[in-house]
Prior knowledge:
The protein has helices at about 15-30, 60-65, 70-80, 85-95, 110, 115-125, 145-160, 175-185, 190-195, 200-215, 235-245, and strands at about 5-10, 30-35, 50, 100-105, 130-135, 165-170, 225. By secondary structure, the protein is an alpha/beta fold. The chain has one domain (about 5-175, about 225-250): P-loop containing nucleotide triphosphate hydrolases (Rossmann fold, 3-Layer(aba) Sandwich), CATH 3.40.50. Strands 3-2-4-1-5-6-7 form a seven-stranded parallel β-sheet, with helices on both faces. β5, α7 and β6 form a beta-alpha-beta unit. α2 (about 60-65) crosses α3 (about 70-80). The site of magnesium ion has 5 residues, from α1.
Amino acid sequence: MKGALFVTGPAGTGKSSFCGALKEWFIKNNMDAAIVNLDPGSEFIPYESDIDVREWISIADIMAEYSLGPNGAQIVASDLIIEHIDRIKNILDELTDYYVIFDTPGQIELFTLRTSSNLIVETLGGKKSMIAFIGDSVISTTPSGHISQKLMYSSVLARFFKPTLYVSNKIDLISEAQLNDIKEWEETPDKLADIFMEEGTPMRKDFFYNILNAFQESGLSNTIIPVSTKNMVGFEDVYSAMALFLSGGEDEDTLYKDD
Ligand SMILES: Nc1nc2c(ncn2[C@@H]2O[C@H](COP(=O)(O)OP(=O)(O)O)[C@@H](O)[C@H]2O)c(=O)[nH]1
Ligand SMILES: [Mg+2]
């Protein structure tokens, strides 16, 4: 494969829609792309998958076999993917010229908090792995919503420590002024801090200020790629970020280099 993009994020932010739209974008631009659905619990997926773990793993069967409810079964299902990893890898080995997009479970913790996920990323994507965190632009229109999503993004980064894109999806649902605010908060975190300074208790102010500083000092600000999956907007920027990393133009620690 040319590159692997693992798509994660909170439930309902548009991960599956993003996977489908990105594949479509690649094909429209004369590049090969495939989607692997790693979500055994999805009932409907808005794309044609090339590999789908639901062929081998059924939530209903796991619930019956282990006497579990749907939540417990989803956790077991996530771990069961490991049993099929060689089979997936064998198929991917044939897709030499493909960008491979991995859709992950609707609940972010099923991907980020299972140690099996590290093994999945390392085995299937290896050094060519990138992660896309899909956030919801509507949630980011308030400072606390934006920071909360950045913290979730940080937890993904902490877990995998792979180059991780922050994609702010659904920009068709917010105004240009709101999008500019979000971009401004990213470029100048002090602006966001100022807003917090105007409201809330001193402890809350300190908390947010320290978080913003941590983002800034770790280079985790100014990373947002605005996208509308619905209107097919922003995908050139997603591709550029992938191409930059895969060509070796990114940070040393997380760099992929052909050896
Ligand atoms: N308006 C709008 N809705 C979107 C966009 N992307 C996804 N959605 C909707 O958001 C909902 C959740 O999408 P889905 O891809 O299933 O989210 P997932 O749970 O993260 O995989 C669906 O109703 C999608 O149609 C977008 O760019 N704009
Ligand atoms: Mg989904």
